[in-house]
Amino acid sequence: MAKYFDVHPDNPQPRSIAQIADAVRSEALIAYPTDSCYALGCRLGSRDGMDRIRAIRRLDDRHHFTLMCRDFAQLGQFVRVDNDVFRAVKASTPGSYTFILPATREVPRKLMHPRKKTVGVRIPDHVVTQALLAELGEPLLSSTLLLPDEEEPLTQGWEIKDRLDHAVDAVVDSGDCGTEPTTVVDFSGGEAEIVRRGAGDTSRFE
After folding, report:
1. For the YrdC-like domain, which residue ranges apply (predicted)?
2. Pair type for strands 30-33 and 183-186
3. What pTM value is reported for the model?
């Protein structure tokens, strides 16, 4: 059964955040809120966690996982960003955007797109997620909590607990965080290519 954490959306309890971070370090797979719907998350190097996310969502090896980063400095450790892209990404973070960029050697090969050697990165604008990332000290390997054959992500912590009780190890509930996923912008070719229109404004990339 998944452990359930009821976390205050504006003032997350430090004890709960520390317990969640410890669980992640111990290979737990968690469902947690972001500024654009719930996500599944695990430790960056967790092969088991990544395989479990693939199984829950029925993903193939071409799916871009996302590294949920605390800030721009952390993001820069895992992707290569040239000057023009730097300005565009910096102006849009934190926020509801995922950027696809060339991965650095810090990213495990299994996480990269097999042909492009790219990875998704984002910096969330969400108090609870930021508190967890600060406590964890490294990115969360993440994917939107969108179940197979369903059009919208799950939005309620209790519903996630009910439906994924034996598939995840912990559910972090800090209230409804909406159903609209991030806007995905691919910069791997040098120019902005909008892959998915979501919660983030796309006008600056068009």
Report:
1. 14-200
2. unpaired
3. 0.94
